[in-house]
Amino acid sequence: xxxxxxxxxxKIMVLTAFATFCLSNVTIARGAAxxxxxxxxxxxxxxxxxxxxxxxxxxxxxxxxxxxxVVDTKTHQEIxxxxxxxxxxxxxxxxxxRYLYAADWGGxxxxxxxxTNPHYVQRYDLATRQWESKQSLVDTYKLxxxxxxxxxxxxSDQWVRVHLxxxxxxxxxxxLATAYADYYGDIEYxxxxxxxxxxxxxxTSHEIDVVRLVGNSFTAAVGTGVYGSAQVGGGSSVLSLDGxxxxxGPLQVEALxxxxxxxxxxxxxxxxxxxxxxxxxxVYDSTTGASLGTLGYSTTVYGLSQSGSxxxxxxxxxxxxxxxxTVPEPSTLSLLGGSALGLLxxxxxxxxxxx
Length: 355
Description:
By secondary structure, the chain is mostly beta strands. It has 2 domains: about 1-30 and about 325-355; about 35-325, YVTN repeat-like/Quinoprotein amine dehydrogenase (Methylamine Dehydrogenase, Chain H), CATH 2.130.10.10. The chain has helices at about 5-30, 330-355, and strands spanning about 35-40, 50-55, 60, 65-70, 75-85, 85-95, 100-105, 110, 115, 120-125, 130-135, 140-145, 150-155, 160-165, 175-185, 185-190, 195-200, 210-215, 215-220, 235-240, 245-250, 250-255, 255-265, 270, 275-280, 285, 290-295, 300-305, 310-315, 320-325. A 4-stranded antiparallel β-sheet has the order 1-30-29-28, with no helix packed on it. It has a 4-stranded antiparallel β-sheet with strand order 2-3-4-5, with no helix packed on it. Strand 20 and strand 21 form a beta hairpin. The longest helix is centred in the N-terminal third of the chain and has 26 residues, at about 5-30. It is globular, with a radius of gyration of 25 Å.
């Protein structure tokens, strides 16, 4: 008489172990990984800031102030050079990817906040490849795009305000709302929550201030306070693409509660996805803080696609294009897991028939 039960159990145990191994390897594969270089080519000019549209295959290079260059990433050719009326200080793509807004700054009398020259907001339509310009009656130092017709502007003087400005049909920008921020610095806007993050600069009290945009109004939100929890940060203001983390220089905080410090990186962070944080000389796993390696050069100029799958950088008159992939495709996960479980089911059926 055959020892049916022990043989059957032994086979099931072996297949269970195999399925567990396959599924555990799927988990391992989900960790953050270094971006993979796809291509590099000479830049048409210097860049202090990059914005990239995967939808329209366009890369925008803002130099130190005089111009914004538009590059077709399929042909690597420069298709436009747009000159500032005064000085370009910032640019941002709308959440739907249709427009690029640019802050054309005319200067202020420091300490007084009065405009010394006209200020402008410029808008580029990626579909028609046309520029438009409107004069702004407020300080247009830093800018975040809300949608096709609205932007948030941050002033440049010592104690600053944020303004919600409407593009509209008038010849000049229209102010819809204003809120007090803190000392000058930079801002980030999260369209999913309406939260506006301001990391200050130039003050001995390093602070993250938050207001929320509701409709066409600003409402107060909790910040880190004077000489508060953000005192160890400063130097850059970056919101991760998924909106979960805010980086104030080397300090990483929870975006929905900026008083919750998560970790401090060895250097300031200049761009971030849900899984990756980019410093000047290293790439980090944003969830563990571990260094994943270097790109082989130093840069603070990054341009991520809105999906986070593509990364562009600028360094030493060169443009570099990377693919960012941290999670296997769903089909791969299904194949690995399904194959293991399918094989287990097959052996189960064979065992039942045989015994």
